[in-house]
Amino acid sequence: MHPIFPGLTALASLLAAPAALAQSDGCSPTTAYAVRGEIVGLKDRTGRLLVELFAPTDDGFLKGDTRSQEHPTALRRLWIAPPASGPVTLCLAAPAAGRYALLVTHDRDGTQKFSVGKDGLALPGNTHLGRHRPQLMETLISVDANSRPLTLRMQYLKGLAGFAPASDQ
Fold it and tell me: What are the pLDDT digits (tens) for 9-54?
């Protein structure tokens, strides 16, 4: 366990995602209820991005996710390979209109496990994580037929200050 970031080390153990269970829940422009937007601030274009949509409850959000088919914690998952250049857009179908928790992780080394020192994450809004684990309230979004596109800014470890966007060095 990393002594300085115990909460983020715990997050790392919860974000492991076996490839066999990864879902593709992309959508089309005509999908009625979806999370649409752009992921900005990537440190590089390596690995893959994982976009996850959770129920808006503490009992489902990042709680010992075994990612089993019988008891999945995330409602929807979308793996995105970052393009070599240009914007990284996302479209993730939601089960229905409503409130959800949203989290994006950047698996830079392809291990399918969150590495505090290498990988990044993004939350809706402008929340700076610093040294704390993402809280449910920081990740909530509303999805309906008129949802506006989101801008999700990636954050990476910046020494003892914790996680911050690349522009905040």
Answer: 445 544 444 333 334 567 887 888 999 999 999 999 999 999 999 9
Cα–Cα distance measured from residue 8 to residue 5, given in angstroms and rounded to the nearest whole number:
5
> 39 near 83, Cβ under 8 Å?
no
Q: Which residues contact 111 (CB under 8 A, 6 or more apart)?
A: none
Do 125 and 138 meet the contact criterion of CB atoms below 8 Å apart?
yes
**Exposed/middle/buried for residue 1 (C-beta within 10 Å: 0-12, 13-18, 19+):** exposed
- Tokens 């601030």 correspond to 41
Q: Is 67 helix (H, G, I), strand (E, B) or coil?
A: coil
Taking the whole predicted model, whether its pTM rises above 0.70 is answered as: yes
Report which secondary-structure segment, H or E, holds 151.
strand 150-153
